[in-house]
Design brief:
The chain contains 5 helices and 4 strands. By secondary structure, it is α/β, with parallel strands linked by helices. The chain has one domain: Diaminopimelate Epimerase, Chain A, domain 1 (Roll). A 4-stranded mixed β-sheet has the order 3-2-1-4, sandwiched between helices. Helix 1 (8-22) packs parallel to helix 5 and helix 4 (90-103) runs antiparallel to helix 5 (107-125). The longest helix is centred in the last third of the chain and has 19 residues, at 107-125.
Length: 144
């Protein structure tokens, strides 16, 4: 079961990485983990993105890290606002960074590396504004 893959401490580390990244940007990052991917990984990630209402952020700058553990599949999906400004190969380079950790069995570290990498781009293009920014989405890992 996907929720058992991570200890409470590891889940807290992932949530803390999301919070840390989001303290520097108006962007929103979420991690969703499930056992099996129903269909193509990017299609499933897009469904989860919508289910989590990530497309409803003010600046359309949400980033979803989707992981299907039993199927060994994962995807990173950015909303229209962030996709319009990141380099063309950004999501692939983020996936490569994460995959390197995943291959070594370091799932928590891989997720955190991807969160930090995405957070750096979000910070550049959507800097945090203390007056108007609010946490629009949960920082907790969601499970399907």
């Amino acid at each position: 079961m996907a929720s058992k893959l991570f200890s409470p401490q590891q889940k807290a580390q992932i949530a803390a990485a999301i919070q840390e990244a989001e303290m520097q940007t108006s962007g929103e990052i979420q991690v969703h983990i499930e056992n099996h991917c129903k269909g193509e990984v990017l299609d499933r990630a897009a469904q989860v993105f919508e289910t989590l209402k990530m497309h409803q952020t003010k600046d359309r700058n949400g980033v979803l890290v989707y992981l299907a553990v039993a199927d060994h599949k994962f995807a990173i999906l950015g909303d229209a606002g962030i996709n319009a400004v990141v380099p063309n190969n950004f999501w692939e380079s983020t996936k490569d960074l994460m995959a390197q950790q995943f291959r070594e069995g370091h799932f928590t570290e891989g997720l955190i590396a991807g969160i930090h990498h995405a957070g750096e781009q979000l910070k550049q293009h959507f800097p945090f504004d203390q007056r108007s920014d609010q946490n629009e989405l949960s920082n907790e890992v969601s499970f399907g």
